[in-house]
Amino acid sequence: MAVAAAFLSSSLLPTTPGSHLTPFTLRSRLRLFTRRAVVVNAAAATLREVCSGRVPDHVLQRAEEIGYVVPTEMQEQSLPLLLSGQDCILHAQTGSGKTLAYLLSIFSTIDFSRSSVQALVVVPTRELGMQVTKVARLLAAKACTVMALLDGGTLKRQKSWVKAEPPAIIVATVASLCQMVERRAFSLQSMRVLVIDEVDFIFGSSKQVSSLRKILTSYSAASSRQTIFASASIPQHNRFLHDCVQHKWTKGDVVHVHVHPVQPMPSHLCHKYVICTKKERMHVLLSLLERDAPKSAIIFVAGQSERSKKAGNPPSTMVVSDFLRNEYKGSLDVMLLEEDMNFNARAASFSEVKGRGFLLVSTDIASRGFDLPQTSHVYNLDLPKTATDYLHRAGRTGRQPFSRLELECCVTTLITEEEHFVLRRFQNELKFHTQEEELPLMNCFPG
Ligand SMILES: Nc1ncnc2c1ncn2[C@@H]1O[C@H](COP(=O)(O)OP(=O)(O)OP(=O)(O)O)[C@@H](O)[C@H]1O
């Protein structure tokens, strides 16, 4: 199996305070790691072999039944480190299988017979939390309890459950977790693994950052747990690595597993753009949908501004989904996912979308971690705000690690003439190529 060199940036950290690495030590450390990775790859053909002796057999058996037989490239590179208990920053492309990697690390560490919170996975959105919980429960197969503490109305009930019988694994959003810990529903003193998924996103939110710091330093100590950060994008990762050690979010020997460091965008995705006016956008989208005939698609729309909310306007997501419900004549179900929907409606939308052909109209809440492997097309009806947002939106397609060539995975962005330079900037930053598409023939232009 081919190996891309992972870049272990822990090698960039001074091993003792004040010490510095010379280019020589850096080179020799990298050589050492590359050699070690090759050895691991030569010997490791299956997930079972990579995890052998570390992950309980019943979990590996469940993994195989689900279809996780061969490790992805990022799993091959990270699992030997994760399963040795090393603190890790998993920095790898969207759809590379980070969830399974950190969950296997959790299952290798927890004591299935103990009733205490031993592992915590922190996620930025309810939907990602629901997804991670589902995979964890599938793997655990009732050998331990996995509880989801996600924002919504059930927290009160969960407080009594968690007190009566603490689950071994908790998957939580930052706000729900802090609410529970502060109300002393449970303690994190016996936590042995802490995972922060989409770490750059959570750190990027000024609302969540102080709570996140508490989770990292006040509720338990880095020395008593394994800490794992995951994301496809960790801007200024050397700085982040430095902060991890400096602020004691991790142990001093944290490892940065950086898979495909020079190519953040998965290479199997194709990128296109169509230049049109804002007025033409929805009709252009309709024609694209008719022409592309996606298996399933996510249509990203900008979130509603406070000003527009105050003016009583409907959110763009609703306008677009109503338009598609009226005009789209294909067989896919039009679904809507949006921040302001209540918990039950969001949960229903999210579960309905699974298993059927869909056109999901959403804001960026669907751009992080969402795993809907049947998504063949992504449409950016509005240009994302940053290159990182583009990366995560694009990464909602092409998510079947071993059958990528069977499905055409396309990201199409609708832009005005004036926005073209922004797309070019994203292209340079993320190192991908976009191709201009002719404006598709439209049945009816807006009057
Ligand atoms: N070893 C494997 N064999 C087969 N499928 C796998 C394997 N590992 C992961 N997958 C599948 O690959 C898809 C992507 O995995 P996952 O959601 O963990 O990606 P990710 O790296 O977390 O992506 P993102 O950064 O977008 O959140 C999922 O559908 C998952 O079930």
TrEMBL record:
EC code(s) of this entry: 3.6.4.13
Keywords assigned by UniProt, alphabetized: ATP-binding, Helicase, Hydrolase, Nucleotide-binding
Domain Helicase C-terminal: 281-445
Gene Ontology terms for molecular function: ATP binding; hydrolase activity; mRNA binding; RNA helicase activity
SMART domains on file: DEXDc, HELICc
CDD domains referenced in this protein's UniProt entry, alphabetically: DEADc, SF2_C_DEAD
Domain Helicase ATP-binding: 79-252
The name this protein goes by in its record: RNA helicase
Lineage: Eukaryota, Viridiplantae, Streptophyta, Embryophyta, Tracheophyta
Name of the coding gene: LOC100281356
